[in-house]
Amino acid sequence: SLGRVVVIGGGFGGATAAKYLKKWEPRLEVTLVERNQNFVSCPISNLVLAGVKQIEDITIAYDGLAKYGVRLVRDEAVAIDVDKREVRLAKGDPLPWDRLIVAPGIDFLYDQIPGLDSVEAQQQVLHAWKAGAQTVALRKRLEELPDGGVFAISIPKAPYRCPPGPYERASVIANYFKQHKPHAKVLILDGNPDITSKKALFLQAWEERYKGIIEYRPNSVLQDFDLRGNVAKLEFDTVRADLFNVIPPQRSGRIATPLANVGGRWAGVDFRSFESTAVPGVHVIGDATASAPGMPKSGFMANNHAKVAADAVIASLTGLPPNPTPIIANTCYSFVSDRDVVHVASVHKFDTQENTLLPVKGAGGLSAVANDLEGKYALAWARNIWADALT
Ligand code: FAD
C-alpha cells in the first residue's frame, strides 16, 4: 500500500476523513477507530428533545463505510504513542500509522463545577451535548416535568461545541411547553455576556413566539451546583429550577491531550493541512481543534476540515504538492420551533499573510426571519451531511 492512515473517532470529522481518503486514494490502508456502536447525530438532536423526532431518526450504522474499503475497528483509543507512531487500544493490538488523523470531538471540564464532578452527579444533571442515551433521558425528564415547572439550561463560556445550539434547544423546548405545558418556563443561564450566534433572529423569535416562556440571563457562569436543592450557584446569585440541563465547559477529546497546545484545551493546527502544530505527521480535525477566527465548532466545519486533511495526507504520502490556500464553508441551521428555522453561513479562506483561515468578506450572512422553507433546507442539509460522511 501507499501508506497506513489511522483515524481516531468516527464522528462528523473522522468518518468523512476515512471515507474521502479511500475515495480519493484507494491505495491507502485506512483504519477508523470508533468506540460507539452507531453514529448518533447532534444536529437534529434538539428536535428529539422537543418530541418532534425520535432517536432512531438521528442514528446511523457505520457499515456504509465498508464499501470504500475503510477498516472499522470498534475500540477505544487509549494513547497516542508519538515515538513509536502507533495508537494503543483498550482491547485490540496497537495500530501503527504513517499518518494519523485525530477527530475525537470534545470532552467536558467538570472540575470547573465541583458539585457535578462525580458520576452520580452527572447522572442526575444531564448535558445531552453528545447525542445518544442522554438525549433520550433528557426527553423523558422533559415529559415528566409538571406544567408550571422551570427548565433551566446552563451555557458555558465560549468556545464550545455548536455556538447556536443552546439557543436552538431553548427555543424548541419552549415550543413544546407552549403546546403541551403552557405554564412551564425555560430559563437560559448564559455564561457569556450576550447571545453569541444569530442574536437578532433568536430574539425576534422569542419575542413573537415565547414571550413569558423564555427568560434569558447573560453573564451567568455556573460556578458550582447543589444536587440536593437542585440549585445552580452563579457568581452573585443562586438559581433553583425543577429540571437542569448543564452544558459544561469543554476541551478537545481526552485522547488529543498530547496535541492540546492551545490553552491546554484545544489542538493547534496548520490550517492548510490540519497538521498538528505540536506533533508532525499527526492531523487534528473537528471540534478538537483551536478554531480559526470566526469559525464555529460545527459538524459542517468538521466535515470540511476532514476533506482538507484527507487531501493533505494523500499529498504527503504520494509526494504531490498540497493545496496552498484551502477554502471551506459553513452553514448552521437552527430550529426556533418544530418547523421554522434560521441560518448563518460563512466562507473561510486560508490567508497566507495571517497564516490562518479567515472569513471571506461579503460571503455568507444571515437568513431572513424564521420560516418553514428554511426548515426544509435544514432537514435536507442533515440528510446530505450524514450521507456524505457515512454512506
Ligand atoms: P464528533 O462528531 O463528536 O465525533 C467524535 C467521535 O470520536 C465520536 O463518535 C466519539 O465516540 C469518538 N471518540 C472520541 N474519543 C475516542 C477514543 N478515544 N476512541 C474511540 N473513539 C473515540 N453542527 C452543525 O454543523 N449543524 C448543526 O445543526 C448542529 N447542531 C448541533 C446541535 C447540538 C445539540 C449539538 C450538541 C451539536 C450540534 N452541532 C451542529 C455540532 C456538531 O455536532 C459537532 O460540531 C460535531 O459533532 C463535531 O464533529 P467531530 O468529528 O469533531 O466530533
From TrEMBL:
Residues 324-390 form the Flavocytochrome c sulphide dehydrogenase flavin-binding domain. Residues 4-122 form the FAD/NAD(P)-binding domain. PROSITE patterns: PROKAR_LIPOPROTEIN (PS51257), TAT (PS51318). SUPFAM superfamilies: FAD/NAD(P)-binding domain, FAD/NAD-linked reductases, dimerisation (C-terminal) domain. The keyword Flavoprotein applies. GO terms for molecular function: flavin adenine dinucleotide binding; oxidoreductase activity. InterPro entries: FAD/NAD-bd_sf, FAD/NAD-binding_dom, FAD/NAD-linked_Rdtase_dimer_sf, FCSD_central, FlavoCytC_S_DH_flav-bd, FlavoCytC_S_DH_flav-bd_sf, SQRD, TAT_signal. Residues 135-248 form the Sulfide dehydrogenase [flavocytochrome c] flavoprotein chain central domain. It comes from the Bacteria. This is Flavocytochrome C. It comes from Thauera humireducens.
